[in-house]
UniProtKB/TrEMBL annotation:
<dbReference type="InterPro" id="IPR036264">
    <property type="entry name" value="Bact_exopeptidase_dim_dom"/>
</dbReference>
<protein>
    <recommendedName>
        <fullName>Probable succinyl-diaminopimelate desuccinylase</fullName>
        <ecNumber>3.5.1.18</ecNumber>
    </recommendedName>
</protein>
<dbReference type="InterPro" id="IPR010182">
    <property type="entry name" value="ArgE/DapE"/>
</dbReference>
<comment type="pathway">
    <text>Amino-acid biosynthesis; L-lysine biosynthesis via DAP pathway; LL-2,6-diaminopimelate from (S)-tetrahydrodipicolinate (succinylase route): step 3/3.</text>
</comment>
<dbReference type="Pfam" id="PF01546">
    <property type="entry name" value="Peptidase_M20"/>
</dbReference>
<keyword id="KW-0862">Zinc</keyword>
<keyword id="KW-0170">Cobalt</keyword>
<comment type="similarity">
    <text>Belongs to the peptidase M20A family.</text>
</comment>
<feature type="domain" description="Peptidase M20 dimerisation">
    <location>
        <begin position="200"/>
        <end position="322"/>
    </location>
</feature>
<dbReference type="InterPro" id="IPR002933">
    <property type="entry name" value="Peptidase_M20"/>
</dbReference>
<dbReference type="InterPro" id="IPR011650">
    <property type="entry name" value="Peptidase_M20_dimer"/>
</dbReference>
<keyword id="KW-0479">Metal-binding</keyword>
<dbReference type="InterPro" id="IPR001261">
    <property type="entry name" value="ArgE/DapE_CS"/>
</dbReference>
<dbReference type="Pfam" id="PF07687">
    <property type="entry name" value="M20_dimer"/>
</dbReference>
<keyword id="KW-0378">Hydrolase</keyword>
<dbReference type="InterPro" id="IPR050072">
    <property type="entry name" value="Peptidase_M20A"/>
</dbReference>
């Protein structure tokens, strides 16, 4: 890329700084809460109106029948495409438009989009409406300065990433929107920070384990069999044998933070016995021996591990407990599983983004892998598209936090990087 092209794109984005701020604020002010899935159509309509006015072809796609989709809370997605009329590749920017619940501890309006100095505050500012705004401004600046570009550009705003992406990217991928003959390069502007290229993520397996018992009166527990005590033995086996084993496994994947470069296991929840009265109620709990106890396990595994072996390790834990405890029985139910994914460092979109980061920021790009999954899993697994990365503004540790914010300069710099990527791949 020549210096004139670089200078023109940089100037075009700097000139759009106010537009970038306003766009990010407008997006934050649309409360696309998930759950339950509010205002999905509103944000898609807003984006569709903006892009259609500039000549983009826009589709609004409802993920009918997907998990969570209902007439009360339909799962709407927006896909915009602009063709150059010249043969070439397609670069696709994919952002999820849903945000998590507000939670407690805010000192600002969660949907106010307040600008304070260099920061824009609000739920979703960092994760990831700032990235969505930056990608749109990047495309607009590129189109304004590069009349003879080739190929196509796509921008999508998709549903439900915060709950697995099944009403969003997965639904679209199943219908060919991310097939390699339609799209060749994908950038997901997740908040990994402006100097990092996220190549992929670890794998995940969620499972429900239930231990079984026999109900009896709490004054005569010897007539029953406590499922909670059985589960206690399972937890002890996990604590003393499985956790130490997992801590010895490390990966060559550049996962951040460094503590996530090993296999991890979290016990998300535990429920045993009869339902308890609501908090604050004067009613007493049921005086019964628990006949069932359930835990939800969240196992994050490495690209060096096989999912079948991950599952076998847990079953071995349960079988060892069963061999020592009379009357112990259990069931395992799979809830969710995703294989690890990682783009190659030599992939075209990786090389192009790395070069753009160096030009904009004057430093070598850092390559990372996310500890948790995001929508790259569906683009890789369903779309069979490997040339996909996450790159966007924002600090990952701010996601889902009170007083979430995104930096205006970070958005501006990221938009410059994205515009240079377009110039390199399509210019």
């Amino acid at each position: 890329m020549d210096a004139l092209t670089h200078a023109a794109l940089t100037h075009a984005i700097d000139a759009r700084r106010a537009a970038l701020i306003g766009l990010a604020q407008d997006l934050i002010r649309i409360p696309t809460l998930n759950p339950p899935g509010r205002c999905y159509r509103d944000i898609c309509d807003y984006l569709a109106a903006r892009l259609m006015a500039q000549g983009w072809t826009v589709e609004l796609v409802r993920a009918t029948g997907a998990p969570g989709d209902s007439d009360a809370y339909p799962r709407w997605n927006m896909v915009a495409r602009l063709e150059s009329g010249r043969a070439g590749d397609c670069v696709h920017f994919n952002s999820h438009h849903d945000v998590v619940e507000v939670g407690h501890g805010w000192t600002r309006d969660p949907f106010g989009g307040e600008l304070d100095g260099d920061r824009i505050y609000g739920r979703g500012a960092c994760d990831m409406k700032g990235g969505l705004a930056a990608s749109i401004i990047a495309a607009e600046a590129f189109l304004a300065t590069t009349p003879d570009w080739r190929g196509a550009i796509e921008i999508s705003a998709t549903a439900d990433e915060e709950s697995g992406g099944y009403g969003g990217v997965a639904y679209l991928a199943e219908r060919g929107y991310f097939s390699p003959d339609r799209v060749q390069h994908v950038i997901i502007p997740e908040p990994l920070h402006k100097d990092r290229i996220c190549l992929g993520h670890r794998g995940v397996w969620w499972a429900e384990v239930e231990t079984h018992g026999r109900i009896a009166h709490g004054s005569m527990p010897f007539l029953g069999d406590s499922a909670i005590r059985h589960m206690g033995a399972v937890l002890e086996e996990i604590e003393h044998h499985l956790y130490p084993l997992l801590s010895t496994r490390t990966t060559a994947m550049p996962v951040v933070p460094p503590q996530a470069r090993q296999s991890t296991l979290n016990i998300n929840s535990i429920h045993g016995g009869e339902p308890e009265p609501p908090a604050g109620s004067t009613a007493l709990p049921a005086p019964c021996v628990a006949d069932r106890c359930r835990i939800i396990l969240d196992r994050r595994f490495l690209i060096e591990e096989a999912l079948d072996e991950v599952k076998s390790e847990l079953r071995a834990v349960l079988d060892r407990v069963q061999s020592r405890r009379a009357g112990f029985t259990y069931t395992i139910r799979d809830l969710f599983e995703v294989q690890p994914v990682m783009a190659d460092r030599d992939a075209p979109v990786v090389r192009s983004t790395a070069a753009a980061i160096e030009r904009v920021l004057g430093q070598v790009a850092d390559y990372v892998v996310s500890p948790g999954t995001y929508d790259q899993k569906h683009i890789d697994r369903i779309g069979r598209l490997k040339n996909c990365i996450a790159y966007g503004p924002g600090l990952l540790h701010l996601a889902h936090q009170p007083d979430e914010w995104v930096g205006v300069q970070d958005m501006t710099d990221s938009a410059k990087v994205m515009a240079l990527v377009l110039a390199d791949l399509l210019g």
